[in-house]
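User: Fold this one for me? It's SDR family oxidoreductase.
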Amino acid sequence: MKGCLLTGYPGFLASKLLKEMQRRNEDTQFALIVHPSQLDKAERLAANKQNVRLFAGDITKEGLDLDAEQTEWLREQMTHVFHLAAVYDLAVPKKIAEDVNITGTRNVNTFAQSLPLLERYIYFSTAYVSGKRVGVIKEDELDQGQAFKNHYESTKFEAEKLVAELKNVPYTIIRPGVVVGHSVTGETVKFDGPYFIMRFLDRLRYIPIPYLGKSEALFNVVPADYIVDATLCLAQSEDAVNRAFHLTDPSPYESRELYRMVCKELLGKTPSWTISPALVEFALSISIFRRFFKVEKEALEYFRCTSQYDASGAKGVLAKGGVQCPDFKDYVSSMVKYYKTHRRDPDKLIQVK
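Assistant: Here's what I get for SDR family oxidoreductase.
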């Protein structure tokens, strides 16, 4: 790997990818496309890092808003592109999601096509491009006429289609499930996704804890270190060229069981009764309740999702590289411990309106 371009820095996954790639590839030149609003933070985090250059750019603009000299240097150096920059907020307005996720990906696609030394283009999608589909979702499926739960899903779907339509570009599409912190340290950058469970339970700690319905839906959680290791394995595998991969838990737990494990680890007790999900959803449709429980209404959809993400393609390729997904029960304690230590950190809290 001569040169590697990343978008999405200083985001959590982009930062972890950079750190691991630097460890494995000491001679690689890394170029980070950083939005001007994130440049100060990126400069602090990248200080003293070897072989790293930061470029103030904007993926929503043609040419990534780089000047001719910067563009020429990148064309002479870059052999790999990792496109992670996106808006991940489940409640994101449509226009913002379209600008960043669709227009941004189109511009990164065009830039990648202009790189004469390009060996691989790795695009970060999401397993939830499946939208409201139910049943088994396969890795070689994308457009099945599905509807979507929110603008995040629909725009990531449209963006992935743009990548899959590229000609003469060796791409690999990564579709993670719900990403949580490191399986050993628990480290994460934001308390969203399953962490909403913990925020909800924190508010109920002094009363008997309810289950949120009786759903047998599976909840697909994967730790960040698995995503990093799996991505780098796929990025180097010839078996992964022009394919999409579900980086999801091959043996996911039911939402109810995952909720029980988190509750036991966080509060030292388990749920003892069941509340109607419709009642919870109604409550979270009212802003005062959302702010009290610190939970986004949109997050509920993912706890009752009846999709099953077939990850057999990823499992087969990753097995050759010795990469496998940890079991949630083996890292839930690390995840909860980190949350308990940092739950009052304002930088990690998702602001709920």
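One thing worth pointing out: Residues 41 and 277 are 40 Å apart (CA to CA).
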